[in-house]
Amino acid sequence: QTGMFTYDPGFLSTASCQSAITYIDGDKGELLYRGYPIEQLATNCDFMETCHLLLYGELPNPTQKADFTKLVTNHTMVNEQMQFFLRGFRRDAHPMAIMTGLVGALSAFYHDSTDITNPQHREIAAIRLIAKMPTLVAMAYKYTIGQPYMYPKNNLSYAGNFLHMMFATPCEEYVVSPVLERALDRIFTLHADHEQNASTSTVRLCGSSGTNPFAAIAAGVACLWGPAHGGANEACLNMLTDIQKMGGVAKVGEFMEKVKDKNSGVKLMGFGHRVYKNYDPRAKLMQETCKEVLAELGLENDPLFKLAMALEKIALEDDYFVSRKLYPNVDFYSGIVQRAIGIPTPLFTAVFALARTSGWIAQLNEMIGDPEYKIGRPRQLFTGSVKRDVKPIATR
Ligand code: SDX
Question: Among the four residues 27, 84, 339, 369, which has the most C-beta atoms within 10 Å?
Answer without folding.
Answer: 339
